[in-house]
Structures are given as structure tokens and as C-alpha cells.
Amino acid sequence: MDSSKMEDNKDDLTTVPSQDLNHDDVFGELREDGPNYRNVGFTGTVILMMKTQIGLGVLAIPSALDVLGMVPGIICLLAMAVITTWSGYVIGTFKLRHREVYSIDDAGGIVLGLTGRGILSTGFCLCMFLHQSPLTDHFVRTYLQNLDYVFNSASAILGLSIGLNAVSTHATCTAVFAAVAAVLGCAMASIRTLGRITWLAWVGLPCILAAVIIVTVAVGLEDRPASAPMTDGPWVPDWKVAGNPTFAQGIAAVSNLLFAFSGTPGFFSIVSEMRDPRQYTSAMLTCQAGVTAVYAIVGCIIYYYCGTYVSSPALGSAGGTIKIISYAFAIPGLFVSMTIVTHIPAKFIFVHALRGSRHLTSNTLTHWVSWLGCTCGITVVAWIIASTIPAFDALVSLIGALLGPLMCMIPMGAMWLYDNWGKNNDRKKNVAWVVASFWSVALIILGTFLVVAGTYGSVMGIMDTYSKSGGSAAFSCADNSNSV
């Protein structure tokens, strides 16, 4: 190969074209009197990513291990970590090659523009290629991106209502707690830039970690889980090496594990507001390593000591005073989780509505009305979802099944194929290229399967929750902090 071809085949990710500091490919002209949308450094990026990932997902991991068993559960957890880490890497490479991309829908629009750049599964074709008209395509991409984060915001509201119930020992109607959580979350999500939200992540991440550490230590020190029956003699944990779930239960538990990493598509918005996007990959790998370690350690320890009597959310596993203390620490972290997962879809709608207009970066009346309308609108829809599906495990599983693969797996496989399939033909002889191609296609197929099968398992779980005597009901006033 001659030197010119070698130069053409070089990965262009190590060099970044010089950019006008007053102009951004996404936000347009950056004004001194407007918000600074490019002000997140390396450390802030790591913290924002970790807070996007670590939240409600970690609270569902021990119950997922109870369904699958310790060994299969940890294997599935690590598999999800590997998949989403690769997806996170693809987000960074795609963003640097396509600077105009702000969120996953922009990436989907680029991929949709050329059919035949990759080998896509039937599910991805149905989700993407059947909607070729610009209007329908924009609607579908907008719907999928926002639905994912609206459901995440709903789960944050639900988690906050559980926390407020636990700390106050159910001082008032659960529906009231959900409304209070929604109002406060909306107010914090209305902070306009991720750079200004970074300090909240510095508060929220230690709080949620402190909460899970308190419970993790407490279950190891107590003689038995809070919900375990009193018996003569010492308590013997009944954890299982391998579970024996039905198909619906097993696939729903896998969806819970995927939900724990469902903050991955938010990395698009975070890298878009980084001062130096070249630092993204290092920040993402740091985040994923830390998140996976926390999930595995916390999940294993809590499940080992609680067994089948593990609570969901896991903060209730130690019961009594420990539950109150742990939720007292967790509530600030849950509020920050809601802030981020409400801010990202609101910013998504806001940017697309005002893109190309001076109102996007100016403090005009149109700017503020549009921005507050986006944050309040997302919050209201999330509150309705949280009040309609008030069972924590059921809601988490539904999000992981219905939207996790569509946001964390399938698009990234297609994005890699779009950027690499049919280009630089000499690279097809490279083993790494062949492996990456098979990996991308396999993820599209696997993601499609998880959408169908996982949604079925999650819906069955929601139906079981409603059919049980005393089960959770929509807009209920009942205490939701004692689920097992």
C-alpha cells in the first residue's frame, strides 16, 4: 500500500480540526451573554457519566441476581458492561467523525441516509428503515430517544417517592411524594448547561454510593435480612449459585441488568458539551470500570447475605433504622439522577426546536419559554408513568427491555457498520475488522431479541404485580417502600 493510501486509512480520531471557539457544530454561534454549552472538563465528564449510570439501576441488581443465581447473574452483568462499554466507544468515534451530532437521533439520521452500508437485523430494519420519509423518520428517532429518558425520569420519581416514604415512615400519600419529587426534579433539571450541573453530580454520586455502602455493610453485620422469618438458631443465607427462573422471569432479570447501564446514550450529550472531545474515550473507560466494579461488589454482597429475602429497591434489605438512614443519604443522589435524566431529553427537544435560531444561545423570552416548557413537559409525562407503574422492579425491567437495546446496542452496531463497512476495502483483510463486523451484527440481532423477549417478560411481571392481593396500583397512596 502506498503512503497516500496509508494516510487515507489512518484513524482520524487522534486529530481534531481547529474550531472557532465562538462557534459549535451543534449549538451554532456561542454568545458571551448566553449559556456556555462547551464547558465540561475531563473530571466533570467522568462524574457526569458515572452519575448517569449509577442510580436506580444499582438498586435492582441484587434482586436480578436472586432470579438468575449468583454465577449466571454476574456473567450477565459483565456481559452488559462489555456491550455498553463498546457502545460508549462507538459513540465517541462517531461523534468525532460527525461533529454535527448532538444525540443518538442525529446519529440515526446519518445512518438512515444511506441504506446498504451495513448488514442490519430485521428488528433494526423495522425500527429504522421502514420510516424513510424525513417527517416520519424524525418523529421515530425523537420518540425513541426521548421515550428512553422519560422512562428513566419516571423511575427516578418512583425511586424518590419510595425514599421519601422510607425516611418519613409513610407520613403522607405516596402520590403526594411523587408529585413533590417531580416538582423539585423539574426545578433542578431547568439548569441550562451540563457544565453547571456537574457540581450536582459531585454531590449526588457520593450520596448514592454512601447509601448502598451503608446497606452493604449492614446486611453483613446483621444476623438476618429484615424480611426473613424469625427462626431458632443462626440465619443461613439461602443465596443460589444458579437460579431456576421461568423464561419470562429470567429475561426480565436480564433486562434489569441492562437498565443499570442504560445511561449510555446520554454520553452523546455529554461529549457534545466537553471542552476537549478527544478526552472522551479515556473518561468513558474510567466511568465504565468504576460503575461495573460498584455494581458487581454491591450486588454480590447484598445478595449473598439476603438471598431470596432481598428487597427491591435494595436499600430496604437491612430494614428499620438502616433503611431510613440509607434512604436519607440516597435521596440527594436520586434527585441528581432525576435532574440529569430529565435535563438530557429536555435539552434534546430544545436543541432540535431552536437549532439554527439565535434563540438557542441567547437569553430571549423565546429561549426561556421553550426551555422551561421542555423540562416541565418531560417531568409531567414522567410523573404520569411513575404513578401508573408504581412497582420498582416492573418499571425498571420494562425500561431495560423495551428501550435498553434500542438505545444501548442496536444503534451502535449500525453506527460502526456505517462508518466502516464498504470503506477502506484493504482493511477487510484485517482480523480486527472482521471480528468487529461480526460483533456489530451480533449485537443488532441480540438487541432485537432482547426487545421482543424482554418486553414480554416485563409485561408479564407488571400483570403479576397488579393481580397480587395488595399489589401496587396506579396513583396509589399505599406505602411503596417495603417491596420484596
UniProtKB/TrEMBL annotation:
InterPro entries per record: AA_transpt_TM (IPR013057)
UniProt protein name: Amino acid transporter transmembrane domain-containing protein
Domain Amino acid transporter transmembrane: 42-459
Topology in the lipid bilayer: Multi-pass membrane protein
Residue span of region Disordered: 1-20
Basic and acidic residues composition-biased segments: 1-13
Keywords: Membrane, Transmembrane, Transmembrane helix
Annotated family: Belongs to the amino acid/polyamine transporter 2 family.
Gene Ontology MF: a single term: L-amino acid transmembrane transporter activity
Main location: membrane
Domain of life assignment: Eukaryota
Keyword Transmembrane helix tagged: yes
Keyword Isomerase: no
Regions that span the bilayer: 40-61, 67-89, 110-131, 167-187, 199-221, 247-271, 283-304, 324-344, 365-386, 398-418, 430-456
GO cellular component terms, A-Z: membrane
Compartments in which it is found: Membrane
